[in-house]
Amino acid sequence: MSAATEKVHQIEDYQAKEESTEQNFAAGIGDTAQKDMGKVAVIISFMAIVLLVVFFYGLNQNLSSLTTEVKDLQGVRGEVATLNTQMATVDTRLVELEKLPLKTRHIIMDGMIEEMNQKAGYISQQLTPEEQAKLAQVQELLKDVQSGLQK
Description:
This protein is mostly helical. It contains two helices and no strands. The relative contact order is 0.04.
């Protein structure tokens, strides 16, 4: 039996060895995992900083272009205000031009009434005093009509 002697070990010995090996393995994994997670955290932080810088410069560029557009719009707003005042001036001139035929007609009638007054004055020199009085009344009526046309 010496050659074939069996080595007998108790199960507790194997269980104790396995538990200690598992604990060492688990502790090693925990340490390396913490080191790896630290590296991952540094990489993620660096990427976040890079993204923040990229977004900052992108937004800064957009704001500068927006500022130039707002300045251009302010110039356009001034030009629109100028055009509005010019349009108001044109509208008032158009109203005056619409009244022009009426004014022209009044000027022509005023000239005709003035001519009638002059002819009545010439005729009154050759009439009797009674007829001159009647003609003076006609001249007064013509002057009233003429003053009404000038208003």
